[in-house]
Amino acid sequence: MSDPALETVLPPASVMPTAAARPTAIAGDHLIDALRGFAALLVAYFHCRQVTWIGMGAFHQMHASLASPGTIAAWLTFPIAWGSAGVPIFFVISGYCIHRSGASKLLANPDYRLDAGQFWLRRFVRIYPVLLAALALTFLADSISLTMTPVSHKILDIGPQAFLVNLFSLQGVAGKTYGSNGALWTLSLEVQFYLLYPLLFAVRRRFGLNAVLAGVAVINVISALTLAPHDVTFFTSYWFSWMLGAWIAEARLRGSEGFPFAYAAAAVFAVAGCAAFHFGQYGAFQLWACAFACYLVKALSRPIPTLGVLMPLFSKLGEFSYSLYLIHLPLFVLLGSLLFRSELQTSIWASFGFTLAVLPVAWVFYRLFERPALNVAARLRKRAA
Questions:
Q1: pTM of the model
Q2: Residue 175's beta-bridge partner residues?
Q3: Which residues contact 313 (CB under 8 A, 6 or more apart)?
């Protein structure tokens, strides 16, 4: 999921690191953008692979040898089987970005109080114009896909009730995701995180962040035991991953460089998440969130590697990752319906082509809908300041 949270705001001068450290903070923002872009592309291609390809098991039975470029390319996509790891990455980044601004003010002034009305207004302006456009695009794309037989099994209800359920961020509680846009399940959680954030911020002022993190962990475990087994998707079941990001924001503002074996811990949690994925997605998500949190708290305190063209490329994708996340699935389903009548392909090349075709569409969508929403949210922030 893309992070609709990100409004990059550096801490005010009173709590800003020294002037020599400011380039590190700015580099950290570039890292966050790049990670958002990487996560969005990971999730998008994970879904594209599901929509267009027969899968690794069936492919292996048909292509046992590595004699062709197509077979080699297919096997190189094997790690994408765990591509849903991009979602907990988004949750951690969301908590980091949302809490960073308020935390910097709170550290500068312990009496600082969050303006809940302003916060909710900016979140609404940031999320809902883009969401409405995405729901409209999903309706249009699915309406065309439904005329093609056989109909893709990815397409669910596109009626008014499903529309309202997703508009009010109740998918997972009062209904399913809209049409073929199954990725919207995470957006409801983000909205629920934001609705509770002012209360969480007030509790943090009173009891401290460590106490809040521990309390959220307990709530997360209870929710996992009571709601998750019944397929009820509510923010409490994923709240801990979001709070890890908030904790990292304060740790970085206080100058923490993470713990010595953070990268090793990240690797252990990541491998454990991949193993847990065999038994269910939910447990894997929790482990992957811990893995990414261990990585992020350390990576933000280090010089950011350029990685050639990869860092600028992922950073550019990060700019419109929210738009990419919101519209990629119905477009993949539409392309599959038009070109293949929803039949899964034995060749992996179609998945590459579909992904490359959707990226420029997502950028245009960003320019038309997300960029104006960002500008309005920025003006609201300046006015409040």
A1: 0.91
A2: 171
A3: 37
